[in-house]
Amino acid sequence: MKKEKKHIVNFSGGKDSSAMLLRMIELDMPIDEIVFADTTLELPEMYEWMNYVEKFIKIRIHKLKPKYNFDEWFYGKFTKGKNKGRQRGFPLVFGKMCHLRGTFKVNQLTKIQKHNDYIYIGIAKDEEHRTNVKTYKNKKYKFPLIEWGWSEQDCMNYLKDNNFPFPFFNKKRTGCWLCPQQSLESLKTLMINYPKLWKKLKQYEKDSPQGFRTNGFKLQDFENKHKNQTKLDEVI
What we know:
By secondary structure, this protein is of the alpha/beta class.
């Protein structure tokens, strides 16, 4: 007997995947499972939003946890390649792919998704170029926002117009709070609004073999420049 295909929604909690999921519910589209790859490094508001969405749609969100916590990964050592035996520290970035993203997110999602499942991804119409990768050429991947012609702004408008308490209306990004690739504005937000996380980030910087960023950027310099009202774009 041929196994039925499941309809699985990849839910990151960002504006695009949130608008996609909530609109899919509204349209009564088939959903068998909703999965969230939890890096455990999201801002506190993200977990609050997850809980809200789960209660609102009355469907359990399957939260996938990585095999290792971040400290184990950060202070652990590379097991192969030219860096074998060296402490990992902050994740290396290959092109636009963070090494940590592959380990903490992609691998978790891949493990539970079977080859014949339909996978729904929240990529907006104005980000359609992101689907031009080999993985997404498989017809199992579905992009409702692109099919609807919804841009990123349309997703934000949908959440606002329906009075959803999305916590990131005024933030430029969601994702790991300690990401070395985040913008200066995002770092400023972290420094001002999340002092405990900022303190922890500075400790990680000290403990990382390559520092926070590989271009000589120092968090303490960034903090000092902010206190002195120096323009953020002068901090490289």
